[in-house]
Design brief:
alpha/beta; Rossmann fold; binds N-carbamoyl-L-aspartate; 14% strand; four-stranded parallel beta sheet
Length: 322
Amino acid sequence: MKTADKTNFQWTHKHLLGLKDLSAQEIEFILDTAKGFEQISTRSIKKAPPLRGKVVVNLFFEDSTRTRTSFSLAANRLSADVVEFTMKTSSVSKGETLLDTARNLEAMGIDIVVIRHNAGGAPKLLSRSISACVVNAGDGYNEHPTQALLDCYTIRKQLGTLKGKKIAIVGDIAHSRVARSNIWAMTKLGAEVTLVGPPTLMPSAVDKLPVKISYSLDDIIGELDAINMLRIQFERMANNPFPSVREYSHYFGLTVDRMKKARPDMLVMHPGPINRGLEMESEVADGPNSVILDQVTNGIAVRMAVLYLVSQANQIVGQVKS
Ligand code: NCD
Protein backbone atom coordinates (compact mmCIF):
# COMPACT_ATOMS: atom_id res chain seq x y z
CA MET A 1 0.00 0.00 0.00
CA LYS A 2 1.30 3.44 -0.95
CA THR A 3 1.04 6.22 1.56
CA ALA A 4 -0.39 9.48 0.28
CA ASP A 5 2.21 11.58 -1.48
CA LYS A 6 1.28 14.98 -0.12
CA THR A 7 3.19 16.89 -2.80
CA ASN A 8 1.60 15.30 -5.90
CA PHE A 9 -1.71 13.94 -4.69
CA GLN A 10 -4.81 15.86 -5.73
CA TRP A 11 -8.15 15.16 -4.03
CA THR A 12 -10.87 15.30 -6.70
CA HIS A 13 -14.13 14.16 -5.06
CA LYS A 14 -16.69 16.88 -4.41
CA HIS A 15 -18.85 14.39 -2.45
CA LEU A 16 -18.05 11.85 0.26
CA LEU A 17 -20.76 9.21 -0.12
CA GLY A 18 -18.89 6.14 1.15
CA LEU A 19 -15.51 4.45 1.44
CA LYS A 20 -16.19 1.40 -0.70
CA ASP A 21 -15.06 3.16 -3.87
CA LEU A 22 -12.13 5.11 -2.42
CA SER A 23 -8.55 3.91 -2.77
CA ALA A 24 -6.19 3.29 0.13
CA GLN A 25 -4.25 6.36 -1.01
CA GLU A 26 -7.36 8.55 -0.90
CA ILE A 27 -8.27 7.30 2.58
CA GLU A 28 -4.70 7.91 3.79
CA PHE A 29 -4.87 11.39 2.29
CA ILE A 30 -7.99 12.26 4.32
CA LEU A 31 -6.29 10.96 7.49
CA ASP A 32 -3.13 12.96 6.74
CA THR A 33 -5.22 16.08 6.12
CA ALA A 34 -7.03 15.49 9.44
CA LYS A 35 -3.67 15.31 11.21
CA GLY A 36 -2.92 18.81 9.97
CA PHE A 37 -6.24 20.07 11.37
CA GLU A 38 -5.98 18.33 14.75
CA GLN A 39 -4.03 21.07 16.49
CA ILE A 40 -6.60 23.78 15.64
CA SER A 41 -8.87 22.25 18.29
CA THR A 42 -6.16 22.64 20.96
CA ARG A 43 -5.71 26.39 20.41
CA SER A 44 -7.37 28.92 22.70
CA ILE A 45 -9.01 30.41 19.57
CA LYS A 46 -10.28 27.29 17.80
CA LYS A 47 -10.70 28.76 14.33
CA ALA A 48 -9.03 28.66 10.93
CA PRO A 49 -10.29 30.43 7.80
CA PRO A 50 -10.50 27.82 4.96
CA LEU A 51 -14.32 27.71 4.75
CA ARG A 52 -14.96 31.39 5.47
CA GLY A 53 -17.99 32.52 3.43
CA LYS A 54 -19.17 28.93 2.83
CA VAL A 55 -22.49 27.60 4.14
CA VAL A 56 -22.76 24.07 5.53
CA VAL A 57 -26.21 22.57 6.17
CA ASN A 58 -26.62 19.70 8.61
CA LEU A 59 -29.61 17.85 7.16
CA PHE A 60 -30.44 15.13 9.70
CA PHE A 61 -33.49 12.92 9.12
CA GLU A 62 -32.45 10.56 11.96
CA ASP A 63 -31.47 11.24 15.56
CA SER A 64 -27.84 11.95 16.29
CA THR A 65 -25.83 13.40 19.14
CA ARG A 66 -22.14 12.89 18.38
CA THR A 67 -22.11 13.00 14.60
CA ARG A 68 -24.19 16.16 14.23
CA THR A 69 -22.36 18.07 16.95
CA SER A 70 -19.04 16.93 15.52
CA PHE A 71 -19.90 18.12 12.00
CA SER A 72 -21.15 21.46 13.41
CA LEU A 73 -17.97 21.99 15.39
CA ALA A 74 -15.81 20.95 12.44
CA ALA A 75 -17.57 23.41 10.12
CA ASN A 76 -17.43 26.17 12.73
CA ARG A 77 -13.73 25.63 13.32
CA LEU A 78 -13.13 26.14 9.61
CA SER A 79 -15.15 29.40 9.80
CA ALA A 80 -18.14 28.22 7.74
CA ASP A 81 -21.70 29.36 8.49
CA VAL A 82 -23.65 26.35 9.76
CA VAL A 83 -27.39 25.79 9.42
CA GLU A 84 -28.97 23.06 11.55
CA PHE A 85 -31.93 21.31 10.03
CA THR A 86 -33.78 18.48 11.75
CA MET A 87 -36.82 16.54 10.65
CA LYS A 88 -38.98 17.61 13.60
CA THR A 89 -38.50 21.32 12.98
CA SER A 90 -38.66 21.29 9.18
CA SER A 91 -41.26 21.04 6.45
CA VAL A 92 -40.30 17.39 6.05
CA SER A 93 -42.77 16.72 8.84
CA LYS A 94 -45.37 18.38 6.54
CA GLY A 95 -44.57 15.88 3.80
CA GLU A 96 -41.94 17.70 1.74
CA THR A 97 -39.68 15.29 -0.14
CA LEU A 98 -35.95 15.05 0.37
CA LEU A 99 -35.23 16.56 -3.04
CA ASP A 100 -37.67 19.45 -2.60
CA THR A 101 -36.14 20.24 0.76
CA ALA A 102 -32.62 20.09 -0.66
CA ARG A 103 -33.46 22.18 -3.74
CA ASN A 104 -35.02 24.84 -1.55
CA LEU A 105 -31.99 24.90 0.70
CA GLU A 106 -29.78 25.12 -2.37
CA ALA A 107 -31.78 28.07 -3.66
CA MET A 108 -30.60 29.83 -0.49
CA GLY A 109 -26.97 29.38 -1.59
CA ILE A 110 -25.55 26.51 0.42
CA ASP A 111 -22.18 24.95 -0.40
CA ILE A 112 -22.11 21.64 1.50
CA VAL A 113 -24.95 19.37 2.67
CA VAL A 114 -24.16 16.90 5.44
CA ILE A 115 -26.96 14.34 5.33
CA ARG A 116 -28.11 11.52 7.61
CA HIS A 117 -31.06 9.50 6.36
CA ASN A 118 -32.67 6.16 7.18
CA ALA A 119 -32.70 5.17 3.49
CA GLY A 120 -29.49 3.71 2.09
CA GLY A 121 -28.56 5.66 -1.05
CA ALA A 122 -30.22 8.96 -0.03
CA PRO A 123 -26.89 10.89 -0.11
CA LYS A 124 -26.14 9.53 -3.58
CA LEU A 125 -29.57 10.56 -4.85
CA LEU A 126 -29.02 14.02 -3.41
CA SER A 127 -25.56 14.33 -4.98
CA ARG A 128 -27.09 13.75 -8.42
CA SER A 129 -29.78 16.36 -7.92
CA ILE A 130 -28.07 19.41 -6.47
CA SER A 131 -24.83 21.20 -7.24
CA ALA A 132 -23.65 21.54 -3.62
CA CYS A 133 -21.15 19.06 -2.15
CA VAL A 134 -22.77 16.13 -0.30
CA VAL A 135 -21.26 14.40 2.72
CA ASN A 136 -22.84 11.19 4.02
CA ALA A 137 -23.33 11.23 7.81
CA GLY A 138 -24.94 7.76 7.80
CA ASP A 139 -27.45 6.29 5.33
CA GLY A 140 -29.60 3.35 6.43
CA TYR A 141 -27.47 0.20 6.78
CA ASN A 142 -25.20 1.31 3.96
CA GLU A 143 -22.27 3.50 5.01
CA HIS A 144 -21.10 5.94 7.67
CA PRO A 145 -17.81 7.02 6.12
CA THR A 146 -16.70 9.68 8.60
CA GLN A 147 -17.20 7.26 11.52
CA ALA A 148 -14.93 4.70 9.87
CA LEU A 149 -12.38 7.40 9.01
CA LEU A 150 -12.24 8.53 12.62
CA ASP A 151 -11.95 4.89 13.74
CA CYS A 152 -8.99 4.38 11.38
CA TYR A 153 -7.49 7.69 12.46
CA THR A 154 -7.70 6.63 16.11
CA ILE A 155 -6.09 3.24 15.44
CA ARG A 156 -3.36 4.80 13.30
CA LYS A 157 -2.65 7.37 16.01
CA GLN A 158 -2.43 4.71 18.72
CA LEU A 159 -0.69 1.89 16.81
CA GLY A 160 1.14 3.79 14.04
CA THR A 161 -0.52 1.86 11.21
CA LEU A 162 -3.41 -0.47 10.38
CA LYS A 163 -1.25 -2.65 8.16
CA GLY A 164 -1.16 -6.20 9.51
CA LYS A 165 -3.27 -5.32 12.58
CA LYS A 166 -5.93 -7.75 13.72
CA ILE A 167 -9.23 -5.97 14.29
CA ALA A 168 -12.60 -7.46 15.30
CA ILE A 169 -15.95 -5.78 14.68
CA VAL A 170 -18.36 -7.30 17.16
CA GLY A 171 -22.14 -7.45 17.46
CA ASP A 172 -24.93 -6.14 15.30
CA ILE A 173 -23.14 -6.22 11.95
CA ALA A 174 -26.38 -6.78 10.01
CA HIS A 175 -27.85 -3.37 10.86
CA SER A 176 -24.62 -1.42 11.02
CA ARG A 177 -23.49 1.15 8.49
CA VAL A 178 -20.49 1.70 10.79
CA ALA A 179 -19.46 -1.93 10.23
CA ARG A 180 -19.72 -1.64 6.46
CA SER A 181 -17.63 1.53 6.23
CA ASN A 182 -15.15 0.05 8.71
CA ILE A 183 -14.78 -3.10 6.63
CA TRP A 184 -13.95 -1.12 3.47
CA ALA A 185 -11.58 1.33 5.12
CA MET A 186 -9.74 -1.04 7.44
CA THR A 187 -9.14 -3.74 4.84
CA LYS A 188 -7.98 -1.19 2.24
CA LEU A 189 -5.48 0.09 4.82
CA GLY A 190 -4.14 -3.44 5.28
CA ALA A 191 -5.83 -4.65 8.48
CA GLU A 192 -7.10 -8.19 8.96
CA VAL A 193 -10.75 -7.78 9.93
CA THR A 194 -12.91 -10.42 11.65
CA LEU A 195 -16.66 -10.02 12.11
CA VAL A 196 -17.92 -11.55 15.36
CA GLY A 197 -21.51 -12.08 16.47
CA PRO A 198 -24.43 -14.47 16.49
CA PRO A 199 -25.49 -15.75 13.04
CA THR A 200 -28.74 -13.76 13.34
CA LEU A 201 -26.77 -10.51 13.38
CA MET A 202 -24.51 -11.28 10.42
CA PRO A 203 -25.43 -9.61 7.12
CA SER A 204 -26.55 -11.62 4.13
CA ALA A 205 -23.79 -12.38 1.60
CA VAL A 206 -21.23 -12.02 4.36
CA ASP A 207 -18.97 -14.45 2.45
CA LYS A 208 -18.55 -11.83 -0.29
CA LEU A 209 -16.93 -9.36 2.12
CA PRO A 210 -13.11 -9.23 2.48
CA VAL A 211 -13.26 -10.40 6.12
CA LYS A 212 -13.09 -13.47 8.36
CA ILE A 213 -16.13 -14.55 10.39
CA SER A 214 -16.20 -15.90 13.94
CA TYR A 215 -19.14 -16.87 16.11
CA SER A 216 -17.02 -17.01 19.26
CA LEU A 217 -15.44 -13.91 20.76
CA ASP A 218 -13.53 -16.04 23.27
CA ASP A 219 -11.77 -17.90 20.44
CA ILE A 220 -10.20 -14.80 18.94
CA ILE A 221 -10.03 -12.08 21.59
CA GLY A 222 -6.48 -13.02 22.59
CA GLU A 223 -5.07 -12.20 19.11
CA LEU A 224 -6.62 -8.77 18.65
CA ASP A 225 -4.90 -5.39 18.35
CA ALA A 226 -8.26 -3.56 18.45
CA ILE A 227 -11.90 -4.43 19.02
CA ASN A 228 -14.81 -2.32 17.78
CA MET A 229 -17.98 -3.09 19.74
CA LEU A 230 -21.20 -2.17 17.93
CA ARG A 231 -24.46 -1.12 19.49
CA ILE A 232 -27.36 -3.55 19.18
CA GLN A 233 -29.71 -1.42 17.07
CA PHE A 234 -33.06 -2.62 18.41
CA GLU A 235 -34.82 0.27 16.66
CA ARG A 236 -33.93 -1.30 13.29
CA MET A 237 -35.27 -4.79 14.15
CA ALA A 238 -38.73 -6.30 13.86
CA ASN A 239 -37.89 -9.38 15.99
CA ASN A 240 -35.46 -10.10 18.80
CA PRO A 241 -32.24 -11.48 17.26
CA PHE A 242 -31.26 -13.42 20.42
CA PRO A 243 -33.16 -15.09 23.26
CA SER A 244 -32.22 -12.59 25.96
CA VAL A 245 -29.96 -9.64 26.62
CA ARG A 246 -28.24 -11.72 29.30
CA GLU A 247 -27.41 -14.46 26.84
CA TYR A 248 -26.04 -11.98 24.29
CA SER A 249 -23.83 -10.39 26.95
CA HIS A 250 -22.65 -13.79 28.08
CA TYR A 251 -21.32 -14.72 24.63
CA PHE A 252 -20.51 -11.40 22.97
CA GLY A 253 -20.34 -8.71 25.67
CA LEU A 254 -17.01 -7.12 26.47
CA THR A 255 -16.89 -7.84 30.18
CA VAL A 256 -14.12 -7.32 32.72
CA ASP A 257 -13.75 -11.08 32.84
CA ARG A 258 -13.42 -11.46 29.09
CA MET A 259 -10.87 -8.62 28.97
CA LYS A 260 -8.52 -10.88 30.98
CA LYS A 261 -8.11 -13.00 27.83
CA ALA A 262 -7.22 -9.96 25.69
CA ARG A 263 -3.74 -8.59 25.05
CA PRO A 264 -3.00 -5.95 27.69
CA ASP A 265 -2.69 -3.26 25.01
CA MET A 266 -5.81 -4.14 22.95
CA LEU A 267 -7.70 -0.97 21.96
CA VAL A 268 -11.36 -0.93 22.98
CA MET A 269 -13.58 1.07 20.61
CA HIS A 270 -17.28 1.87 20.25
CA PRO A 271 -18.98 4.34 17.88
CA GLY A 272 -21.54 5.31 20.56
CA PRO A 273 -24.13 5.45 21.90
CA ILE A 274 -23.18 2.56 24.22
CA ASN A 275 -25.75 0.21 25.73
CA ARG A 276 -23.79 -0.15 28.97
CA GLY A 277 -24.10 -3.65 30.39
CA LEU A 278 -25.18 -5.12 27.05
CA GLU A 279 -22.37 -4.91 24.51
CA MET A 280 -19.90 -3.63 27.06
CA GLU A 281 -19.52 -3.33 30.84
CA SER A 282 -19.02 0.18 32.20
CA GLU A 283 -15.67 -0.79 33.76
CA VAL A 284 -14.41 -1.66 30.28
CA ALA A 285 -15.95 1.36 28.52
CA ASP A 286 -14.26 3.64 31.05
CA GLY A 287 -11.17 1.47 31.57
CA PRO A 288 -7.52 1.89 30.53
CA ASN A 289 -7.89 0.17 27.13
CA SER A 290 -10.79 2.35 26.04
CA VAL A 291 -10.17 4.93 23.29
CA ILE A 292 -13.88 5.71 22.94
CA LEU A 293 -13.53 9.37 23.90
CA ASP A 294 -10.43 9.71 21.72
CA GLN A 295 -12.63 8.58 18.82
CA VAL A 296 -15.02 11.43 19.58
CA THR A 297 -12.19 13.97 19.77
CA ASN A 298 -10.57 12.70 16.56
CA GLY A 299 -13.92 12.85 14.78
CA ILE A 300 -13.76 16.65 14.68
CA ALA A 301 -10.37 16.74 12.89
CA VAL A 302 -11.49 14.05 10.47
CA ARG A 303 -14.72 15.91 9.63
CA MET A 304 -12.78 19.18 9.23
CA ALA A 305 -10.59 17.35 6.69
CA VAL A 306 -13.61 15.97 4.81
CA LEU A 307 -15.43 19.33 4.66
CA TYR A 308 -12.25 21.06 3.55
CA LEU A 309 -11.38 18.51 0.85
CA VAL A 310 -14.84 18.31 -0.75
CA SER A 311 -15.05 22.08 -0.80
CA GLN A 312 -11.59 22.32 -2.44
CA ALA A 313 -12.58 19.72 -5.05
CA ASN A 314 -15.69 21.72 -5.88
CA GLN A 315 -13.48 24.66 -6.78
CA ILE A 316 -11.28 22.72 -9.21
CA VAL A 317 -13.31 23.54 -12.31
CA GLY A 318 -13.21 20.89 -14.99
CA GLN A 319 -11.31 18.31 -12.93
CA VAL A 320 -14.13 17.34 -10.63
CA LYS A 321 -15.44 13.79 -10.40
CA SER A 322 -17.87 12.69 -7.70
C1 NCD B 1 -23.75 5.08 14.80
C2 NCD B 1 -24.81 5.37 13.75
O1 NCD B 1 -25.63 6.26 13.92
O2 NCD B 1 -24.77 4.69 12.75
N1 NCD B 1 -23.52 6.08 15.74
C3 NCD B 1 -22.78 7.18 15.44
O3 NCD B 1 -22.87 7.75 14.38
N2 NCD B 1 -21.90 7.59 16.37
C4 NCD B 1 -23.96 3.77 15.43
C5 NCD B 1 -25.17 3.56 16.29
O4 NCD B 1 -26.12 4.35 16.29
O5 NCD B 1 -25.18 2.55 16.99
